[in-house]
What does this fold into?
Amino acid sequence: QVHLVESGGGSVQAGGSLRLSCAASGLTFGGMYMAWFRQAPGKQRDWVAVVAPGGHIIYYADSVKGRFTISQDNAKNMLYLQMDLLKPEDTAMYYCAAASRLTILPITNARNYNYWGQGTQVTVSS
It folds into this structure.
């Protein structure tokens, strides 16, 4: 079965950095859309970043562009999210997600992703 397991969350002061990791198993990593989403209490789950199959196409939400970097290591079946210059509004549960194909446009729609990790909490204090 497919398993996605996030790690690396924690509490950090504004301006600090964290690196989230997602360990994937049970899927063909290189053939998947791999994405990060986040959800704050009482809010909808929002897309953060995505890398398309092949690793050459990457998109970021405007709210994190220039501060976050998504990357992957196909040999290790690992997905990463490097988060720099963190802001209090980045506080949320962060989820790793995978999709084998798109059924709903755009690619950032969470309903495309049928595999999800358990989430890792990121808390940014001011």
Remarks:
- The chain is about 0% helix and 50% strand.
- The first strand starts at residue 3 and ends at 7.
